[in-house]
Amino acid sequence: MTTPEPLPNNLGPTRLQQIYDSTATFYDSVVAQHQARAKELAIELLARQPGERFLEIGCGTAWALSRIVAASGAANAAGIDVSPGMLAVARDCLLSDAAIANPPLLVADARALPFANASFDCALTTYTLEVLPSDDIAAVLRDCVRVLRPGGRLVIVNLTEGEGADAAISDEWKRGYLADPEYYSGSRPLVLSPFMDAAGLTLQTRRYSGHGDSWPSEILLATR
């Protein structure tokens, strides 16, 4: 079966930052219910242990980050996002949900992560890669490989091609996206395995989440 090519995306980092800054305060009220199940599965697959050096890339409002550090501790954990507006919401979330007053959050470009080689044992990125142009997806994954230690693990969640009855959902999404990419914040369904192979990641586990309120999503555990 041929892997479908991602739809084109011409939204650069500056426009994406503007979009997510403008939606940060109400983002979770609109999308959290559609993303929650896949993110929960991702947190399970990540299985971050206390003290492990952990990075969330595109941490957004810290929906996942707050749960991870509440369970495994804030030591050696960090989050980055291109949107200062999202990180402002994330700081409030980490304070209220995980009692972290000074969270290690950075405004950063995921294509060039501001960390040394082999800085992390594990990393997570959820619903981030599908908003990027294809060349940027490749660049982000390459830099994830760079900052992970040998044998380190990366968990990814992305919007994907719907399976079974969900195929109609992703087909409708793609039609809407082609008509107005900005309405969808640059987000379109991806099949990520070719990008992972090219970056030198080894896929260990793939799960699918969809049906009902959940967006068609793939949850991928890979190792460097």
Overview of the structural elements:
This protein has helices spanning 13-23, 27-46, 63-72, 84-98, 134-147, 167-179, 193-199, and strands spanning 54-57, 77-81, 105-107, 120-126, 148-159, 202-209, 217-223. The chain has 224 residues and is an alpha/beta fold. The protein has one domain (13-223): 3-Layer(aba) Sandwich (Rossmann fold). Helix 3 (63-72) packs parallel to helix 4.
What characteristics describe this protein?
224 residues; alpha/beta; Rossmann fold; seven-stranded mixed beta sheet; 40% helix; globular
Q: What class would the helix/strand composition place it in?
A: alpha/beta
CATH superfamily: Vaccinia Virus protein VP39
- State the total count of DSSP E strands: 7
The portion of residues assigned to helices is 40-55%
- Strand arrangement, major sheet: 3-2-1-4-5-7-6
| Helix and strand element order | HHEHEHEEHEHHEE
Q: How many discrete structural domains?
A: 1
The CATH class: Alpha Beta
Strand share of the residues? Answer: 15-25%
For the largest beta-sheet, the strand count, sense and barrel status come to: 7 strands, mixed
CATH topology: Rossmann fold
- What's the overall average pLDDT, rounded? 95
N-to-C terminal Cα separation, in Å?
A: 26 Å
- The poorly predicted ranges are none
**CATH architecture annotation name:** 3-Layer(aba) Sandwich
Evaluate the radius of gyration. Answer: 16 Å
Helices, by number, come to: 7
